[in-house]
Automatic annotation (TrEMBL):
Alphabetized UniProt keyword annotations: Signal
PANTHER family: ABC TRANSPORTER SOLUTE BINDING PROTEIN-SUGAR TRANSPORT, ARABINOSE-BINDING PROTEIN-RELATED
Gene3D superfamilies: Periplasmic binding protein-like II
Protein name: ABC transporter substrate-binding protein
Tree of life domain: Bacteria
Signal peptide segment: 1-30
Keyword Amino-acid biosynthesis listed: no
Amino acid sequence: MKKKNIKRLVSMVLAASMVAGLSGCGGSNAGTAKSEISDYSFPLKETATLSFITSAESGSTQEPNERLIFQRLQDETNVKIEWTCYVKDQFADKKNLALSNAKSLPDGLFDADMSDYDLLRYAKQGVIIPVEDLIEDYMPNLKSVLDNNPQYREMITAPDGHIYSFPWIEQLGSGKEAIQTIGGMPFINKTWLDKLNLKVPTTTEELEKALLAFKENDMAGNGQTIPMSFIMNGGNEDMGFILGAFGEGYGDVPDHIAVSNDKKVVYTATQDGYKEGLKWMHQLAEEGLIDPEAYTQDWATYVEKGKAGRYGLCFTWDAANIVPSLDDYVPLPALAGPDGQKNAPRASRSDTSGLQRGRCVLTSKCRDTHLAAMWLDLMYEPQQSAQNNWGTYGATDTANIFEKTEDGMLKHADLNGASPNEVRNAQMVGGPLAILDVYYGKYFTCPPDAQYRLDWIKDVYEKDMHNDYVYPNIFMSQEDLDEVSRYTTDLDSYVNRMKSEFVMNGNVDDGWDEYLEALKGYGLDSYLEIMQKNLDSYYTKLEK
């Protein structure tokens, strides 16, 4: 962060401090001991200490203060952080164990990864504290983000009206152009199409003909051709997107939830279009066009076959992770079905799926909530957010995600063949942050591997997105969370099993009524009532 940016931020914080006073309790809802610090401007005149729990990937350093980002922050603030760092895949258990001991609580959890249930539970127990007053009084960066994006304030506010956490926000496009709006994109082998003098399909009929041509001409050679593969019910590797060509066009998404244009919650797996789509998929299976392992394979198997160049059509977030060369594949557009229906289904929460509300929390043992809030607010400065999220610049012992231009902008650097994920894991620190679309091109550039996906969504899919709404990232009450969890456990298990059975074995028409009756027995109607109630409440509050 530039010194002039620090000075500008400090002046903002001091202005807020003059209004709120310089007590250490940070507002009426923080309740910690009074601080001995008399001047809160950064860098502090004397070193102060805060303690945080965080996590890191197993292949990277487990000593946060070895990371250049935190070293710079300590130099700029004179705030020393005592870290307790756990390996990411052990973090959930270690975190819960640490929070169970009231006598040894840290000041906060920097990369808390708390679910809504965790936030409500630990707030009720008094383990974590409300932070809305701290945001108002000492966090001008975060306050500005929330004031200018009121949907985020609504989404991080608990049902009791308090805010218990500092969020992680990553905007990469918004609305229908958000990078998360289509998770499982279909990618078709353009090289094979060209060799067969076929155009990229635009209808289900054309796709079926292309898949048959892939099979009959054994495009991979040696009998290795797999016309279509996916991981059934495998999130971004599922084939639900393609079902948008049928009936109402809702297709299918991992949670089976869509929203109609009159703001009614729709369960995708009961729609006529879903039914007709599964019948068509069964027809493809009968013709030998679907990978027989698609119903059971894991990620490693899926990737292994993809990297061997066997796929004519596959589904994933980014085909570069699956296929030998991205140059051989192009996104398959939304297809027109037998009735001319064409829709690009949008994923639930995709408008704001770049939001994690439980990213950072302060505990009831926080020694100085005023200082903690000020320090955490630095994470919401635009260039600090970018570095915390992706990596930094100026390291001499490793590759850098960014280089700093003469005008002070952070530009994504040429990694010279290094893995972007490995460089990011070595440099990034995570935690609370906010990356907004308005920052790109002003403070930093967009990641290259995100930009081409954004281009696909805008150029290939947006024109066929006919649903104006998706289910938002709603903070439900603990009672509703419990009920939703209870219902979805049974519903998801049954729907996912029957989805595979209908595609593999057919009998969709004969078994459909029994299938719908079973869903009622698992509480579908009650589940949808809860979802609708929360959706209505969300828009009522947002529109006030």
